[in-house]
From TrEMBL, chains A, B, C, D:
InterPro entries: Chorismate_synth (IPR000453), Chorismate_synth_AroC_sf (IPR035904), Chorismate_synthase_CS (IPR020541). Reduced FMN (FMNH(2)). It comes from Butyrivibrio proteoclasticus. The gene is aroC. Homotetramer. The lineage of its organism: Bacteria, Bacillati, Bacillota, Clostridia, Lachnospirales. NADP(+) binds at residue 48. Its EC number is 4.2.3.5. This is Chorismate synthase. Belongs to the chorismate synthase family.
Amino acid sequence: MSGSVFGKNIKMSTWGESHGKALGVVVDGFPAGMELDISDIQKFLDRRKPGTSPATTPRKEDDAVDILSGVFEGKTTGTPISLIVKNTSQRSQDYSEIAQYYRPGHADFGFDEKYGFRDYRGGGRSSGRETIGRVAAGAICSKLLNEMGIKVMAFTRAIGDVEIDEKKFDEKNILLTPTAMPDAEADKRAMELISKCKEEMDSVGGVVECRVTGLPAGVGEPVFDKLDAVIAHAVMSIGAVKAVEIGDGTRVSKYHGSENNDEFVMSDSSVEKRTNHAGGILGGISDGSEIVIRAYFKPTPSIAKTQNTVNKSGENIQVSIHGRHDPVVVPRAVVVVESMCALCTLDLLMSNMLSKAENIIGFYKK
Amino acid sequence: MSGSVFGKNIKMSTWGESHGKALGVVVDGFPAGMELDISDIQKFLDRRKPGTSPATTPRKEDDAVDILSGVFEGKTTGTPISLIVKNTSQRSQDYSEIAQYYRPGHADFGFDEKYGFRDYRGGGRSSGRETIGRVAAGAICSKLLNEMGIKVMAFTRAIGDVEIDEKKFDEKNILLTPTAMPDAEADKRAMELISKCKEEMDSVGGVVECRVTGLPAGVGEPVFDKLDAVIAHAVMSIGAVKAVEIGDGTRVSKYHGSENNDEFVMSDSSVEKRTNHAGGILGGISDGSEIVIRAYFKPTPSIAKTQNTVNKSGENIQVSIHGRHDPVVVPRAVVVVESMCALCTLDLLMSNMLSKAENIIGFYKK
Amino acid sequence: MSGSVFGKNIKMSTWGESHGKALGVVVDGFPAGMELDISDIQKFLDRRKPGTSPATTPRKEDDAVDILSGVFEGKTTGTPISLIVKNTSQRSQDYSEIAQYYRPGHADFGFDEKYGFRDYRGGGRSSGRETIGRVAAGAICSKLLNEMGIKVMAFTRAIGDVEIDEKKFDEKNILLTPTAMPDAEADKRAMELISKCKEEMDSVGGVVECRVTGLPAGVGEPVFDKLDAVIAHAVMSIGAVKAVEIGDGTRVSKYHGSENNDEFVMSDSSVEKRTNHAGGILGGISDGSEIVIRAYFKPTPSIAKTQNTVNKSGENIQVSIHGRHDPVVVPRAVVVVESMCALCTLDLLMSNMLSKAENIIGFYKK
Amino acid sequence: MSGSVFGKNIKMSTWGESHGKALGVVVDGFPAGMELDISDIQKFLDRRKPGTSPATTPRKEDDAVDILSGVFEGKTTGTPISLIVKNTSQRSQDYSEIAQYYRPGHADFGFDEKYGFRDYRGGGRSSGRETIGRVAAGAICSKLLNEMGIKVMAFTRAIGDVEIDEKKFDEKNILLTPTAMPDAEADKRAMELISKCKEEMDSVGGVVECRVTGLPAGVGEPVFDKLDAVIAHAVMSIGAVKAVEIGDGTRVSKYHGSENNDEFVMSDSSVEKRTNHAGGILGGISDGSEIVIRAYFKPTPSIAKTQNTVNKSGENIQVSIHGRHDPVVVPRAVVVVESMCALCTLDLLMSNMLSKAENIIGFYKK
């Protein structure tokens, strides 16, 4: 099995290591005729760029994207869209020491067992920089969804024990606060928590929430390719995610049926739900209400605090991992979650067009 | 996209509706030469059979499996294994009324929007009976894993707010208690809760946990086909699951890095971890310790309590769903979770054999 | 890799051995709402049934198909369609001797090398009976194509050196002649050739041609999933096929560009081609004219004539393969070729609906 | 369905248009630890480079490849290998006129019907330059096959009616003659034919043959992913190919079984075949003898001779296509066929390792 290709109707193949020459993605199966400008993609990549606030690593990464194929005279052509970001600020010398031991919380040991060796520079393929390709692909998918009136929007729900207050939710804050929280007050408290973590040479986890609005009912395939199952795959595949939930998520395990069921009601001759415990998905198929996804991120494993571990010679050693690491990955991961959800939504939206024989007959009879 | 085929090296194609003639699965890509007896599969199916305790529906389903292909003289042949279970006790008349309205918490509305109509008998393809094929396939995968010393074992962790006590964990109870809880005391309390739900014509949710032991390090593909991502896909695709977590799961979002990182340590010249917050997976690749997965199930949506909903004529109505429904799906879902985890584990274990050039050269040079 | 699943939007999973309990197919991804009766499928299977003429084996196989899922109240539901044919007339004792040696022209040796052993009864999975699942799936795909005015029709073009004369082409003969030739005179000569082969305890090869009419331009994906590439895969995967050609096929290698190029011309304000050397496919995409595919079949390898071979003990031996074998597979293979071409055409027709952004936006905006 | 990703264990995603910024490929799933130098790939690309003889276009294309990821310290890492070739000599002005009409023998009309418009510069995605990615991927696969003693070698079998004489077959000529023919005399006659074509402003077709030696028996999956079926898909997906055959190919349709069957014989305690009409594949599985594949190419459709066609305004017009076109594509296509065959062979070789349960158990028990 190959592990760097994702999607069915739209396939994205990501490639690149943290300290290689470049990273990128090939997006195959994207439909023709959508206007696409480099700035559509760049603005997504800028949201995952570090160095813009104290919440992130001081590393500077320009991450300027280039479109190498699949766009002609400003429009997608229906053929593979190849996107590339060159690595410019990588300092490989930071990592030479790491080659000799297994960093706690990292994939180093697994990689060595799997492949016999690894590109140890900055995590290589398991670096957070791997997500550049995902975000570039997500930007394109988001744009097409927008043209259909479907909006995918992620934000930071919590950092450590600081959670947003729904009553203070202000969407525009997502792009303005350093934590990507929609609640400016929670953002302040979260920034204080992050400062404290940095002082303590430690890191902290958090929660990203993603909401999809405007999605019609009927999207998602009934058994293995349920909308929530495909999204769970996509979101759990983001490096530091340890849990994924839909709607009320883990809480439903304590509910009674009469609490959890969302009652249907007619509203202006359309079917709606009074509540949305289900997070917009029933039996794996969208029900026309808002889709709600939450991803739980672990704290950044690279910390300067002293830790015990072992080296490749089989000795117990102590390490302190220096370098320019994010004290929390969540603010930069927001756009990654959003990108993965956009890709899955578009992919299943396309599949859904093929669900009825009459749609196919109608398409070709016209 | 088709939604009823899952897996890469081993593909299972499930088929069948709740009240159709039969349900089944075709397992393609399963390796040749493993001894396989019908009882290996039947004992898995018996674990999801209803009617054996007050925790489940009084419906009687024999669910006797037959092997139609892929086994010759007691051994798998390497060609597709076709397994079938005939429907015998289905009473379609129970469901005629349901055809006219959308049951809250069910996929009825989504199905109608997607396909234009639906097989309304007992949920059709979105019935829990759809999992028969999954469990039959899982039984076969489990057997091969066992022959390698790898064990996949799921159990009920919680029903409603009744959770097991790890100190009272006794593995043999899993197959003995009506709730599939390994803690006999918790089981009793859970049974009381279930009784109360039934009296109140209501239902309740719960949590299934699955553990994989004996899995070597190196299994899982680094980017999209991470071990946890593939498992999240598989487990979230089970009807009533609303959240999936690995290791400490949602809790990690509140941890600091120094708490969450599992330190490596040498033990008898092998690399081990002192703790297992990670649930045995780092960067999507197994690290040699126990894999821990949890699935959160919503309460059974079919309840006899009166609920508001709408019918196909667009009228607001009140319904009370009678029929022989489980007050909680969790005890019967345990083996479904176990089956999906077994399939994913075996599939990625097979992929991992292809990770090193020297393995391939070595195989063909011998 | 698993080898018994084919298709992308529509996936067919075939299963079953020549002398197992049954054979069948699961068709996943077929759209909902098409009327489907068992007779739609049975009439296709009857075309591959032996025992109806001197051109085929005297074995009697009823091959009665049953629909186990995916059809409700006479219509496809959009969920997997499971089709089964029970084995009834198989006589396993015919084959006990074969287990000990490698039949020339058969896959016996490859199977043993690959899997360590094989189901030797009647060829097991490599038997021509494997195609039952393909034909059952093809019947369904053909029906939907017909509803769009697209017709897939295969026939016997040649048996040995007896080829049809285009001027005597009469379509209705395809279903009437024992050879499935549209030219009744060629059919007579072919039947004489077959008689002679039987007398000489020998067999003969032949050519099946398939034509697809009514297919709009634009079907096929430009690079690897070209319409002709996918068809070549599908047709070459039929047991005895050794060559596949499109349009003028092998002959084009001797043409000049000025001969081979089909000139475009306006006809009633639509673009047409004056000639069709290309067989309706340019650059892998349909051009609106008739699709022409030819499959070249080798002679049946099972012959009663004495042959040299080796046995499993590594001894050189002589064998004479008795049993009820077709002296030529072509007449029964016609419907297999037609079925595979129908599946590929429908699959790519569905993909093509997703080629333009405006189609997707239009579908969801309505 | 997306059309620019091919392979199962090893997936190659090609991208790029004739006159875009660059072309390339991402190879995912390639095993770790193989030494790989840029020259291993460049030497393959140089074989498809034009401008080196009168048999090819006078265009100069440097086609210098760069490795952007997946190789570390001279070895493959097991993660995606991204390869890029920048476009340097493209002159877009040559093609402005072409935008307005449909070139006979080209995919222009199909592209417009499918996507609504096309990148008309030099054929865009349907240009022969698309094969750059295939050849770069094939070079890598070939290298790993070589390390196992498996050799994939293609050559020009015929150009127009000039065919090689097997008795004059000298392998080293393949890389020395301008036509890539192994028979130097045939090469001379072929060059004369090509000259004549150029004078007449015409083009000609030809045949490429590919042989795989050293492949063990057992490779190929029995039903849809037969070795020959996957190769037929891969080879037919090369732009100008109109027929693919295995072994004696089309000729077998006229054979009797007694002629066509290859008898097995013991030779030094290993099973061999006396003849090889089957081209090394029986029932889709390799039998241990040489694999023989032939691809029939049509003449280059771009010719300077006057042709009739239609333009986008629906007018009948006459055109003469100028530009620097190959009078025959075959010599440059040799390495493309070889590359596709190498990829398929390696992909199925990897699958075959997973055929027996004992292989998997043995791998993990060690």
